[in-house]
């Protein structure tokens, strides 16, 4: 699982920082998460092939998460894309994109599928045999969802030595891989846990931005491997965080701790701060394993 | 009169080039012309004060001329702008901007005035006592206007030596400045041309992009000081120019020549060309005084 941060600063694009967008590479998918103005240029800069992007997940319709989407869709069209593109985002996103395309008398050469969200409960929005993507309802000034990306556990590795010891026929191997117990000819039942190893913990990634501090997301992101949680402010600006419905680094760390996350990845910093290391320092007082997102940063898990 | 090119490449933003946007400084106005994605970052990069921009002229609603506008409007809002902003552009621009603001639950702290255009005849869209802005109806794949910016001739410089010679009272100076003749006490009429000098030729700037080659614009831009005319292609791609309703460098030079322009400024180059000097070379075979627009280039007239 690889995460590439294309932009992770709040509010407005600047010459030195970009608004929110990131790419998650998981089980051969290249998911684009949020798409602030300038995302297509960041994709080019970091040499991410446009054609690998088939699913775009938009958290909410504020500019710093969304205003680059229409340009990306148009560029895909100008480059002659043929592959389908799926857009997941709040209700209204379809109307906006279609209106902008219509005004430019520009229709896409490829199929554009909109998956509009309205629910305040977590729901599965994408699933194949290897990955599942669910929404994480967040609390912000407009309707907002984070997204949880989970690898599925496909099969349990066989403990061949034990299996051979019981002289189990190969015909049963698939059943064992899928977690089944085995009844021997003499009637003894051998538990699956004896015949297999625990599979490696599947990768999972929770993207949570923008949101005020809320523990309602904990049941959804419990035990997540990597939690990206916004930290727009430091604790000394907690009043601004509350007022603008954002989070402090300390609050993000609290969420990571309560969710029993393995790693916390910070981002969505207010541009008022000169040194983003302060966010890491503040979060680490609560939760040790904190990584700092920054434009262009790449992480592999 | 100063022109700053923020971006002048066709189609899509790239890491090294920007879509169309430019700033025209004329008679204390700072007019923004077109606003492709990334324009706000280009404005920051070139240290153009956001607050000086009060009028934005959009030629047409293709992304490379328009997709940066909503981000600019939003950023103005986030920065607490209070000054009015006037937007001139094709009908539909208001619906698009208001929808995007509504979806983000984001209303501007300042007054936003839309001047929507539908006419196929040239019309005055802005006028004060020093400058007049008129549309230049162009021919492109969607409804498109260029814009003609003209300084007004405000007054004729007095020829003080002659005036004193005729012993004309100071009370008449304003009348003379405005072009009036003077009748002396002995009945002699002194022509204004004897009492004043010709004022310097007023600056004028015609922005013409995007358009197929069309001579219908000639009466509007006749004798213009600086003609910015798109030249998306070189003549060897004339078939593409026609197909996509763009212009070649040679055609742009033809327009400059027929319009009796003083200077031709080229731009809106297709990104297929590695060397934009070829555009200048091709145009200069027809029209000598050719300047090359390029991102970040500044011109003063």
UniProtKB/TrEMBL annotation, chains A, B:
| InterPro entries in alphabetical order | RibonucZ/Hydroxyglut_hydro, RNase_Z/BN
Residues the record marks as active site: 64 (proton acceptor)
Under catalytic activity, the entry for this protein gives: Endonucleolytic cleavage of RNA, removing extra 3' nucleotides from tRNA precursor, generating 3' termini of tRNAs. A 3'-hydroxy group is left at the tRNA terminus and a 5'-phosphoryl group is left at the trailer molecule
Q: Where are the transmembrane segments?
A: none
Pfam families attached to this UniProt entry: Anti-Pycsar_Apyc1
Record's keyword terms, sorted: Endonuclease, Hydrolase, Metal-binding, Nuclease, tRNA processing, Zinc
Q: Give the cofactor note text.
A: Binds 2 Zn(2+) ions.
The record lists Zn(2+) 2 as bound by 64-65, 210, 268
Q: What is its EC number?
A: 3.1.26.11
Q: Which domain of life is it from?
A: Bacteria
Q: Which cofactor does it need?
A: Zn(2+)
Query: Which Gene Ontology MF annotations are present?
Result: 3'-tRNA processing endoribonuclease activity; zinc ion binding
Q: Where, by residue number, does Zn(2+) 1 bind? A: 60, 62, 140, 210
Q: What does this protein do?
A: Zinc phosphodiesterase, which displays some tRNA 3'-processing endonuclease activity. Probably involved in tRNA maturation, by removing a 3'-trailer from precursor tRNA.
> Subunit arrangement?
Homodimer.
Q: Which family does it belong to?
A: Belongs to the RNase Z family.
Protein name, entry field: Ribonuclease Z
Gene designation: rnz
